[in-house]
Amino acid sequence: MPGRALIEPEDAEYPHVPTPKELELSRQLVELQQEKDLRETRALTQIRDLESQVHKLQVRVHDLSQMLQSTKRDQILAQQAAVEEERKRWKVTVQALQTELDQERNDKEAQKKWQCRFIPPVEVPEDVFATCSSSKPAPTIDPKEDVFSRFSQSLALLPASQAPQVAEAGALPFLVHLLQQKMGDVVTGSVLIALVHLAIYRTKSRSHQLPASSNNGLDIREQIVKAGVCTPLVDILEASQNARVLVEASRLCAALASYVPNKRVLASKNVVRVLVQHLMPHIPPRNREKRGDDDEEDISVTLEQLPLPWDLAVQENILSALVNLSHDCEILRSQIAASPYFLPIVVRYVRESSSAGVQTEAAKLLGNVAFNHVVNQSALMAAEAPTALTACLTAANLQRSPQLARAGAVGLANLAYTSVNQLTIGYSNASTLLLQLLVDAVSQPLVIEAASTALACLCHQNQPNKARVAAQNGLQVLLYALGAIPDTKHDDDERGVGAALIALCESFAVIANSRPNRQQVMELDGHFLLCQLCQSCSGVKTPKLLESSARAVCALVPPPQERSALIADNRESKMETKSIALKALDRARHLFEQESQRLRHHGEKEDSMKGRRRWLTQTIELLTSYQTASALTSEKPGSDGEDEFRDRSSFSLESLTAISPDDLCPHFYD
User: Fold this and answer.
1) Positions of the region Disordered (predicted)?
2) 299 three-state secondary structure
3) How confident is the model at residue 578 (pLDDT cuts 50, 70, 90)?
4) In the predicted structure, residue 172 carries a pLDDT above the cut 80
């Protein structure tokens, strides 16, 4: 048997068999490792839990801080809003208190000035040494009169909206009773101011929102007259020598006369005679004794040489009263015109007064007296009223007072009623100044209206004046004014700008209604402007402008003989080109028919309107016949200036003076 190799003990490989002790140690080591892993896992879990709690706490802290900031901000904003609201409330309260304080202060100041205004001036002796040695005490007011005057002044200081309540409270009879007692000038003047303010509370344009009358249905001006104010008012006007009292009495008379039903009562009290006496120069006693031996011419010469009485304020307000009395009242106009030597004195006021207000009121009075009354017009022509009225039309007077220029133009328009008067005024420079007014006053519609009406009155059925106006480039001026006046879209009541356009169209219809003037308008292409204006008018908002513009277009349509002459000269009738005139007039007739249908239940008014617009139908028929080459043999209405579209009397204008509140009550209508 083979022998075995010998192995050294150190080279021998022994199997790895752990000993019991090693096994124990291994087991303990494994347990320790497991315990370590468990503790690490538990520690990590706790760490994550703590981190999560910390994050939640941070979010909570952030939310709480945001809520705290928001709460503080809301509180601060609420406090600020409350403070601002309180501040505004106190500001309004302070402003109301300040306004009330200012009003009370102004009222006291106004009462003090009113009392000083009506206290008659103290006569100063001529001896200066006597004046220095004897110190006269200031005039005192009786306590009873002071109470009554302050009561009247407190009524005068009330705003316009309180006037109906004052009338309903029964204050009017008491105020009239104070006038009847003939107390001092302070009481009389204060009562007159209160009555004036009560009478004019509705004269402001915005006051149409106020009730038209008190509960009894009467206008306050009528209530004042029914309370019996006319008799004491005339007595004051006749007997008072206090200029300021006369001013207020005249203002009250003018305010009451602006209401037509009051005129009959005022006429019965001979108020015209009293007012006229104040405006007449005072003839010295020595000359008055010789009046029986002097003829009327000497007296008129004497009156022309004497100075005009009273101051400018008295003159202006008395003239205003006469203006309102003569407005829309033939009886009072005749009384004024019949006053001996008075009309030449009114002309003197227009010619010589240094006050534009006095001149304006005097010119208004002349225009009202001449309103559609041939006898009065003859008297005014004899008094050289046209010369004085023409002087009112200058550019200097327009710059000084547009109302004066308007009053002068209205006066000339009313005087140019007969052919003799038209020629007399036409031979002067009146037409030149009127045309210049149309250029200079293009931004003042009231002046444009009066100047256009005056030109229409001068040329109404008067060929020489039509030729004279055309030779002075009058047609060019009318076209310029028609194009320069602004749009009337917001002038629905046809006042202001609308009235100026109406007057321009009416003047154009008169002046262009002759063969030479029609041809001149065609050469200027003026028919385009008039047809365009007629096409743009509304039958509901601007019916008067539609009618006047249609009338102007009709005036440019040539009659058959004139058209035949144009065709014979190989010239076209521009009014027939593209049927420009026929389209405008057809549209106008259609709008008028629509308006008539809307007012069909007013049968009488509809029939009268159809009769008034017969010229429109005839002109349309004439243009239609031109298109069919069968011209009518009859002349169209208004051809060659023999007949006009409107009567002369329909052009006349009247003037009415609006009475304003006292200067110490600037916020009367607020």
Assistant:
1) 1-21
2) helix
3) confident
4) yes
What are the Cα distances from residue 646, in Å, to 26, 496, 549?
140, 22, 13
Does residue 453 form part of some domain? no
What's the pLDDT tens digit per position in 20-34? 888 888 889 999 999
CB–CB of 451/444 below 8 Å? no
Instruction: Examine the domain organization and report whether 623 and 547 are in the same domain.
Output: yes
The answer on pLDDT for 446 being more than 50 is yes
Domains contained in the chain, number: 3
In a shared domain, residues 104 and 35: yes
C-alpha–C-alpha distance, residues 435 and 429, integer Å: 10
DSSP assignments along 154-202, one per residue: HHHTS-GGGHHHHHHTTHHHHHHHHHHTT--HHHHHHHHHHHHHHHTTT
pLDDT at 12: 67
Domain boundary, last residue among 79, 99, 117: 117
The tokens of 171 are what? 């204050």
pLDDT of residue 423: 96
Residue pair 452/500 in contact by the 8 Å Cβ criterion = yes
163 and 99 in a single domain? The answer is no
DSSP letter for 441, please. Answer: T
- Is the model's pLDDT at 603 over the cut of 70? no
The Cα–Cα gap between 292 and 301 comes to 15
Please indicate, yes or no, if residue 265 is contained in any of the structural domains. Answer: yes
Question: What is the total residue count of the chain?
Answer: 670
Domain assignment present for residue 127? The answer is no
Q: Provide the pLDDT confidence category of residue 639 given band limits of 50, 70 and 90.
A: very low
Q: Are residues 176 and 265 in the same domain?
A: yes
Q: Is residue 169 part of a domain?
A: yes
Mean pLDDT, the chain, rounded, equals: 87
Q: How much of the chain, in percent, has pLDDT values that exceed 70?
A: 86
Based on the domain organization, do 109 and 170 belong to the same domain? no
**Tokens describing residue 602:** 């007013």
What is residue 567's predicted lDDT score, i.e. its pLDDT?
A: 87
Q: What is the Cα–Cα distance from 139 to 117, expressed in whole angstroms?
A: 12
Integer CA distances (angstroms), 70 to 59, 77, 378, in order: 16, 10, 92
660 contact partners, CB below 8 Å, separation of at least 6 = 200
We report the CATH number of the domain holding residue 190 as 1.25.10.10
Range of the domain at 112: 28-117
What pLDDT band is residue 139 in, cutting at 50, 70 and 90? low
196 and 262 part of one domain: yes
Residues 151 and 240 both lie in one domain: yes
Tokens 């007039």, located at residue: 585
One domain for residues 154 and 81: no
